[in-house]
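Researcher: I'm preparing a figure for a lab meeting and need a structural model of a single chain. I don't have an experimental structure, so a prediction will have to do for now. The sequence is pasted below. Please return the structure as tokens so I can convert it later.
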Amino acid sequence: MSVSPSVPASSSVSTPPAAPGAPTPTQAELLEFVRRTAADTELIASLPLDPEGRTWVRLEGPGGSEAWLIGWPPGTGTGWHDHAESVGAFLTASGELKENSLVARLPTDGWQTLELTEGIDRERRLSAGQGRAFGRHHVHEVLNESTEEHAVSVHAYYPPLPRIRRYSRTGQVLRLEQVERPEDWQ
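Model: Understood. Here is the structure written out token by token.
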């Protein structure tokens, strides 16, 4: 399975910050947002799909959150990563995605390589209409393992992503490879 580079479907539009004193969206509210958005069949069908790489369109998320509609060609994935201090939710709108995640919280900074203990891996298969919310520092990878079918998903994060840490994994060894910031995705 290859991890294809992302190909933007359109330019990004900044999400305005939450109004001062406004409540910040919870994981449950982000999950409800991605659920409602994924049910918008016209929006889902409007996403340009590329046969080679992921495509995305930035959406207006609730309460100043960052939201994305993402298209996944067959055989693509994100690689291991986290969303730093952001909580989030994602839901498969069409097709099926697989999420591999770690159930242990990792140190947030100050390390390059960790040896993971046995039993901390979790696998989820998320078909259309299925999704999940997650907390800060959630380490996972998302994959479209289909050899024939695109998948489309909706994602939301709060606060808007301050950084993404990307990891490589060989067996039980996880290595920090790169730290990306928002300006890297614009």
